[in-house]
Amino acid sequence: MVAKISIGSSLYGALAYNGEKMNREEGRVLGANKIILPADGQIDIARMVENFNLFMPKTGRTKKPVLHISLNPHPDDKLSEQQYEIIAREYLDKLGFGEQPFIIYKHMDIDRHHIHIVTVNVNEQGKRLNLDFLFRRSKRITTELEEKYNLHKAQREKISPDTPIIKLDPSGDIKRQVANTVKMVGMRYNFQAIGEYNAILSLYNVRCEQTDGRVNGREYHGLVYFATDDSGKTIATPFKASRLGKFASRTAIDGRFERAKDKIDITPTKRKVAYIMAHSTDKADFIAKLKERNIDIVLRYTEGGRIYGVTFIDHNTMTVLNGSRLGKEFSANAINERFNNPANTHSDTPDVATPIVVPPIEPTPEDSHSDNTQEPDNNQPSGGQQQSTSTQQHITVAQSVSDFGDYDLPIPGLDLFQQGQSFNPDEEDFRRRMQRKKKKGPRHRF
Prior knowledge:
By secondary structure, the chain is an alpha+beta fold. The chain is built from 14 helices and twelve strands. The chain is 32% helix and 17% strand.
């Protein structure tokens, strides 16, 4: 059994998160302590908050009084709801929270049913309960419960350099899959901008957005992650980076941008792309030949179908490069003019792209460094390469998520954040210029 403990400040957010599961019929309340549950089973979040507040001091110095705990038995353990409740209560007793107000929920949003517990770590006198060695004590308690109730020993899934990266399965644990994808992409690939980061994430149906704003007078810069389908449409409630782990944070990703500058050698990728481009007859042939060389290309289109963004993902060197980084001849504008602009073709010639001259480049060892000390063997195809797609639809910018609590649901007053930049600034500037051309009348300079 794996216990996950989140310590936060938003009681409303914790209760609303579980309430949303109930609204979707993916969860139900199994029991509570010192909390009045309605006879009709219709949980009123505001009333639940009032119940908790009755047992909490009006004032106090504890900034994060809320504990949100999930208990996750092994998938092979088939427990009744009564057994879930018994285990949850015994876990809280052993942890020292048995007399606190709490609510126990059962979640059925994934095949592996599990328990969520919302409680507080402050008693009625305003004294904070003992949180020393909390996670170590929790591990010891879950081990004791496994032995007492003859449960399978469940361990956290460990990520290694050999673990394949696969697309999200909408029927599985989406949060865990997003976290694993973000962690493994960060371990293996080098990228220098948010657009390049999003390009590699998009192969596995994950998207990242920057959030910038102010909360309680303090400036805020963060990241929010989205699970998507193959068309880029969001399929689940977004996750703050803090809910996935430090490896997903704005600080961690910005650090990877900086470190990648000294690691990336564009020469091997540029040599391959230039050769393939010179021997490709059209865009489809170009994409197919790149894929044969273990290179994915992500193209972004305007509404009119013009290419305004291009990113190359070289799985051999584990690098992600916007086309402009390779050179002007590989930029979005050049790719569009070569493969996506019928005005450049002539009626008396076949529809074949104009050849380009490939400068001779001496072969160099391919750079396969990553931010992790354990580096994958780049001579072997990674698991994610098998699932990577050859084309990419226009990436739409999702509505920004403003959430300064510890949970996924929006809370009143969270419209303070403004969506940060999501794509390469050069690409965005080019797209805006193309849109301005559609306006009537030329602009004159005086």
